[in-house]
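Example 4.3 (complexes with small molecules)
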Amino acid sequence: MRAAIDTERLLGSLDMLAQIGAIDGGGCCRLAYSDEDATGRRWLASRMRMLDMEVRVDAVGNVIGRFAGRDDRLPAVMLGSHIDTVRTGGRYDGNLGVLAGLEVVAALRDSGLRPLRAIEVGAFANEEGARFAPDMMGSLVYIGGLSAEDALAAVDVDGVRAGDAAQASGCLGDAATPGPVPHAFLELHIEQGPILDREGFDLGVVEAVQGICWQRYRFGGVSNHAGTTPMSMRQDAGYVAMRVGALVRELPARYPGQMVATVGVLRLQPELVNVVPRRAEMTIDLRNVDREALLAARDDLDAEIRAIAAAEGVTVERESMAFFDPFDFDPGIVERVAHHCAATGRRVRRMVSGAGHDAQILGRVAKAAMVFVPSVGGLSHNVREHTAAEHLGLGAQVICDVALELAEEPA
Ligand code: GLV
Ligand code: MN
Ligand code: MN
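Answer. The structure with manganese (II) ion bound is encoded below.
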């Protein structure tokens, strides 16, 4: 069974979704459970209904559309990703996987085809984790790796509970979690890094995702006058945080496995020109394909942070925000995806994902796979995120071909 992707229609959908929460520079801000996220989900649900899909929304706000198959007792083939974004998001991260899924259904309808298994398209809630930790929250709840209750107890930097935000914006539904395990899960995503673009590849077959460790540190010192307090008498929480920031930047060189390390949030209090900071808060994102190296880096860093803080008379609080082991996709389905990619005659590379994805969570319970398309200049989590139209269409066609093959598999 084969259906033809209409790249123009896919571009049109990406464009429409990008209007919701649009920000300067062509990007989007649809932080999880915000009003913009809710508007995006309503738009998505209406598109699903227009494609004869039955829509369900679960207790954590995952939106799942179902295009019935010839035998609806069989587990569905699920396609999808997320439509929440970081505050400075582009228009492709996540959105592409969801809208390519809808394009597969639209292509099926064009050709009057009805696969054996249902095709489901999922938009998983709060994949980004930029507002509420952990990331990949909706997919974790979908597979039963986290309860909806615990997920919704997460609190953002302004003290707002995820559950309250989700309720107020109308993001929650009544479909049960965990959700039904699909026959297979496929996610098309932009690479979000420079490899495919720089090396001239058209498609990426994702074999694994690196491990992710997110932590928040809070340092407590004493506010004092910047002019009168001798350097030897300071308990400067800001100084500790800034030394830790430099340490984080230098950390990866000490470990095997192509480690990366980032301080994404750094806040000082009272944040005034002439006051020694009393409090500092920072997040540390560590990633590595090598689990042992990731854990060693986390623990070594913690010991060094405590030594720096102790020498300054500053207190330390550590909070674990998220931890995901490195994940290897099922080799059988990876080979099948690689085969379909090769059949396009385009340049295909196998690769490891640097970003976290819903597919690695669905992959814990079902066979799952991902296809990457190039990110121009390797930019992502940036309004200038861009992928060429031909690559969007190419990736969607591969996902469509693999999905329809899987959807014909008998029980
Ligand atoms: C999700 O975008 C991540 O931070 O990997
Ligand atoms: Mn994403
Ligand atoms: Mn992202």
